[in-house]
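Input structure tokens:
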């Protein structure tokens, strides 16, 4: 079991990080804005609803750690928000740590159900080429077969 802590490095002997303060929460990356900024879906303070916040990855880890879309992270929110950024990413959780019950919050389960439906649609066996990339810079010419000769 490996957890990559943003601030402490990777270790195979560490358990998944647990929030130690009320400002630390689990979340799921829903959008990557670039420049180390991520939209993350977290639960609100009461734990009943969800909210979308803009979180940053510390600058010294921009070219070291890549956070994928849909990844689970532990974030620390700022007490007073002066800008659009609401906090920092403390650690990126690996998939085996997401199975632990404390990580499965209503915010993460909600997004997880949507992603499983998309995967089921993809794996349904539809072989149409409608969703493939079409290069518009090339002329499409249909070849006619000359079987008469």
């Amino acid at each position: 079991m490996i957890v990559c802590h943003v601030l402490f490095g990777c270790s195979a002997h560490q358990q998944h990080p647990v929030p130690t303060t009320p400002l630390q929460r689990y979340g799921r990356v829903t959008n990557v804005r670039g420049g180390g900024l991520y939209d993350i879906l977290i639960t609100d303070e009461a734990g009943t609803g969800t909210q979308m916040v803009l979180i940053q990855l510390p600058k010294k880890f921009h070219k070291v750690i890549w956070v994928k879309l849909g990844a689970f992270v532990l974030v620390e929110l700022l007490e007073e928000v002066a800008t659009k950024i609401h906090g920092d990413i403390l650690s990126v959780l690996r998939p085996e740590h997401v199975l632990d019950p404390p990580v499965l919050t209503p915010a993460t389960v909600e997004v997880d159900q949507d992603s499983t439906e998309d995967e089921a649609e993809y794996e349904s066996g539809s072989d149409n080429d409608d969703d493939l990339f079409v290069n518009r810079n090339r002329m499409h010419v249909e070849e006619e077969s000359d079987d008469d000769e």
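The first strand starts at residue 3 and ends at 5. Strands lie at 3-5, 9-11, 24-34, 37-43, 50-56, 72-77, 85-92.
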